[in-house]
Amino acid sequence: MKAISFAGALTLASVAFAGDPTGTPPLPLGLSAKLYQLTVPKPPTPAEVALGDKLFNDKRLSVDDSVSCATCHDPAKAFADGKARAVGIKNQVGQRNSPTVLNALFQATQFWDGRAGTLEDQAKLPILNPIEMGMPSPEAVVTKVRGIPEYRDAFKKLNGREPTYDDIASAIAAFERTQLAGNARFDRFLTGESKALSAKEKNGWALFNGKARCNSCHAGNAVSPLFSDQKFHNIGIAAHKQDFVQLATEALRVVRAGDEEQNDRLALETKFSELGRFLVTRNENDIGGFKTPTLRNVGVTGPYMHDGSLATLWDVIDHYNKGGTDNPFLDGGMQRLGLTEPEIDDLVAFLFALTSEDFKALEKKELASQRAKKSNRPERDTAIALGKKGHMGDLAPNPDIKNPADLGLYGPVASPEK
Amino acid sequence: MHVRNKLGIAALGLGLGLGSLATWQTAFAETPSPLPQHRVPKSSDGDVVVAMCDGETTLEVEGVKDPSTITRDKAQAISDELLLAWRKKNPDARWDAPPPKQQLVAQANPPQPPAPASAPVKKAGETASSGADEAARRASANIQAGHTYGAFSERDEAIWKESTEQAVREGHRVFHDAKAVGGTVAISCDMCHPDASNTHPETYPKYQVQLGRVALLRDMINWCIENPTRGKPLADDDPRMKAMEAYIYAQRKGVKLEYGKH
Amino acid sequence: MRKGVKSIETKHYEERDSFFDGLRRLDRRAFMRIAGLSAGIAAARGLVTPQGFQLISVAEAATPSAKPKFSFAYISDSHLYKKELNDRFVRSLLKAVDDINRLDPQPDFVLYGGDLAQLGQKEELDLGKEILKGLKAPVKMMVGEHDWFLDMGEHWRGLFGEPQYSFDHKGVHFVTLMSVNEKDFWTERKMTPMERMQTVAGLDNGIQSRFEVGPAGREWLKRDLEKLNKNTPLVVFSHSPLYKYYKPWNFWTDDADEVQALLRPFKAVTVIHGHTHQVLSNQIGNIQFHGLLSTAWPWPYAPEGLPSLTVPMNRPDPFSNFDGCGDGRIDVLESGLVDKLYNLWDRNPVTVKSSYLATGGKQDRPPTAKLPPY
């Protein structure tokens, strides 16, 4: 398995500027130094990273030695797994889609419902989850790891003592903090390479900021280039598979605040996982809400949504085009978009242009595979999208949008922020 | 001046410098209906007698012969006096005092049609001959003169103020008219922003969450045109955009600038 | 786990842990049984979670004494245009109707708070009536200025009857007032009916007269309340606030003092009013005032005159079609006063209790807004 180490990242990505004295490493094109400084107070050392790399890929962290972090977060597959829902030990299928580790360090919270506040907190949970890696307790993990000489020595050298569960999580998180992905065609376009985006992709970018209303939740700009507002929205995905209202009403009477572990189990095992952020905050308006994911590398990290229920990006746009699935907790910003087929194609083209150069081959493959599925569009409802049926809101007339990039609205990408 | 409560005949219409005399009887000669009549007493000295709308109270203005020109200040004094008398007679009446003259933020420049009066123009300085007086007067004042910036007259200021007010009024019109702003769902700006409240133009530039980036006031105006009112966004130099900005800023006169405030 | 005496928190956590443990092994039916038991046990022991969310479908018993006598729901200020012109307001009203229909148990009746149409047109009022027909519970209509001033209430009366009426329900006397009368400002200006309606429709349009109940209305009210025992709880529905909040926007009733004087002798009086499209609470003397939410759009808070007891709602986000809007429920208590639940869409619900108003804001304070109004 190819592991993209920190050193590797330096060679693969084209570096726009040298690392500055404060310790911020050189970042791939498009990523914001300011954001890095905000999220990573002290960059990890190469020793930690190497150790974390080993742990990340080590199947022995699971109870039957069959599953490692990299099983669901496969570096070759842009740190996702290409499956709708994650599969753990004994071929058990969970309830959620595996998010990518690339740029995960920049996220405000981890998991689709934000139940982990840091990468360390996140790393601890799948190891203990009976469906994913199945270790019975933190003590069991620590015992197992201490029993492996190379780890015991590495940790002793690093920390001067035997590893604890926190140390293991720290090391994995340190490795994850080097998994940066930028340098997409979009980033090169912003720095002045006007040919980097095709006309269709440019139109997609204009639609993204205009008629398709994407930038309200998937905001991208020079300081926060994640294409995500890191908030939790109910866009009707949970509602389109079941009697969601019924579920929510039951749960409201029943669910209490659990700690991360309790929520973790609820999220992955029971049907209440569809309640999303509500399991964490118990706020009524968070029912069915899931975190806005990053759109960088979205083309190669399908299937989409928290349960992987949308197979292609065309399905995703179809879902938004009809205003999501109406349910009592639907986010107020959802409404029908009235996008035409060529506009949808342009949007998808733009989204693929957010893929990092490292994954060029994978991008080609994914695009072909998604295009093949294009004839089958289960989410499409043109009548609702165009307002002939239903009450999913009204539309603005199509404005003559100038390309936002031409207007300099994204912000400077090439020059370092102070 | 003292008040007389007496029933009488003959009244004088209160005129500001008009001085026209009309008796009760002549004015209503053709009216056949038995309307209640306010019988106003005639002054023994031939003074002006003013009748009040309650049908009872009258006031004799001493020393002012009937007919004569009455200045505005004097007329105001007469009205005040009459009103005082009425209020004494009707202690239980609910009388809303005029609103205090404090500077309401949103009301700093209330854009009510018809046009607010422009600054009073001095008579002097209008004609060519008075220009010389004006020039002489200015020469004696110890202010830098000549073609220096700022050497403009009150007349200039009045004209410019009126032009500004015109832009603000145009902005008021567009702001209150869903079709004028280009909206397609009959929602006008004042529905959510009466008197341009909640527009907070003093907080721009700032990161505007709805746009996902830093914005200025006109970016947000355009966003609002596109989204809540479902119209086409206006070009930066569209006169309607400029007018609306003018109106919005005018409503926030005196508010501290605080860019970036959320 | 601590040994020895267990604190409330520990007991709570233990109960919860075992609850979740059981959760994993249950099938759905068994799950629901345990859940019901658990909720019951928790409530009985007073272990209701401190942040007891007040869901519109479940009346959480916060304090035993505040159990409502009965409840009614409300929808208000829909400002409908015809669907082809503006679909959004129709969508909101349908959403409100769905919310109320989903309540379990159903409310005793639904108050419609006024301003059903935006410009008082026949098609708008008819559309509104059609949509409200979808409500399962009976509807009590109240008229707003947007319904009235196109044809001076002619079509409204045909559809919904007289604007002023009263009724008794479970020992409470309800009065619906027509409180948006305006002195004639249109004849001298030679306005057409539509011009008159457009003038009234503009909140900051200073030409229109201030709202009033008017002498005829007050006389009607006086006679209606004459024979009523002063201890009977009284709830008054009015479109204008029946107090003086902000004159330039007609958040105002000119003869408020007279009307309040008629209401004051009663022991428990509550005024429920529309028109202001915001969370609004006030107490004047012994009269409590609650404002209704709109389904169409929220108003900002006025630059001055905001009652000190009002805890403002958070600033609305214009990106959301529904933010700052909603519907809600009013619980009439044994005392005869009411607790008001604001079901703000896309936000957590907010309840303003009569105890909060009665104690001058010292008790049961509703949650504060995150950002102040501008």
Question: In words, what does this structure look like?
Answer:
The complex is a heterotrimer of chains A (about 425), B (about 260) and C (about 375). Chain A is mainly alpha-helical. Chain A is built from 17 helices and two strands. A two-stranded antiparallel ribbon of chain A has the order 1-2. The two termini of chain A are about 40 Å apart. By secondary structure, chain B is an alpha+beta fold. Helices cover about 30% and strands about 10% of the residues of chain B. Chain B has helices at about 25, 70-90, 130-140, 155-175, 215-225, 240-250, and strands at about 1-5, 45-50, 60-65, 205-210, 215. With about 375 residues, chain C is of the alpha/beta class. In chain C, α4 links the parallel β2 and β3 (about 140). In chain C, α8 runs parallel beside α9. Chains in contact: A-B, A-C, B-C. Chains A and C meet through α11 and α12 of A and α1, α2 and α3 of C.
Number of helices of chain C: 10
| Mean pLDDT value of chain A | 86
Count, helices of chain A: 17
Identify the CATH homologous superfamily of the largest domain in chain C.
Metallo-dependent phosphatases
Q: Provide the number of structural domains of chain C.
A: 2
Give start-end ranges of low-pLDDT stretches of chain A: 1-19
Molecular shape of chain A = globular
Rough shape of chain C? globular
Query: Based on helices, strands and strand pairing, what is the structural class of chain A?
Result: mainly alpha
Q: Provide the structure class of chain C.
A: alpha/beta
- pLDDT averaged over residues of chain C: 85
User: What is the spatial order of strands in the main beta sheet of chain A?
Assistant: 1-2
Q: Biggest sheet of chain C, strands in spatial order?
A: 3-2-1-12-13-14
The residue ranges of chain C in which pLDDT falls below 50 over 5 or more consecutive positions are 22-65
Gyration radius of chain A, rounded:
22 Å
- Most residues in contact, chain pair and counts: A-C, 29 and 38 residues
The CATH level-2 architecture of the largest domain in chain C is identified as: 4-Layer Sandwich
For the record, give the distance between the C-alpha atoms at the N and C termini of chain A, rounded to a whole number: 38 Å
Order of helices and strands of chain C: HHEHEHEHHEEHHEEEHEEEEEEH
Q: How would you sum up the major sheet of chain A?
A: 2 strands, antiparallel
